[in-house]
Design goal:
Length: about 120
């Protein structure tokens, strides 16, 4: 999960998928936060820019479209459960607008998703 292109949170499965472990050095332009034993906590900090976030996302697997729909539906339901009324995607990174947003419109979310096209 990206937070304002300044940091990202990865769960254990995501850390395994991208190959981050205690032996992974901090990449140039970023920091992998670690626990007392030196293991990645899952928090990535973008310093001085978001390169670490984009390069880490590129290492992960890409879900087939039907699984993207299912994942987006679950994400939107969780936002609904928490009372979130809208989400914003500022359009940064490696998105392929508008094709990459078909998963959002196909998920039939109950909350508006505001997209800022780049270009």
């Amino acid at each position: 999960m990206l937070n304002l292109y300044a940091m990202a949170l990865l769960n254990r499965a995501a850390l395994r998928a991208v190959g981050y472990d205690r032996n992974t050095p901090d990449p140039a332009g970023g920091e992998i936060q670690r626990d007392g034993a030196g293991n990645p906590t899952g928090v990535l900090i973008a310093r001085p820019n978001a390169f670490i976030l984009y390069s880490t996302l590129a290492k992960g697997p890409k879900l087939p479209f039907d699984e993207q729909l299912n994942s987006t539906r679950h994400f939107m339901r969780e936002l609904n459960r928490l009372g979130v009324t809208s989400v914003i995607d500022a359009g940064g990174g490696f998105q392929n607008y508008p094709q990459d947003y078909e998963v959002v419109t196909g998920a039939e979310s109950r909350r508006p998703v505001h997209r800022t096209p780049r270009g």
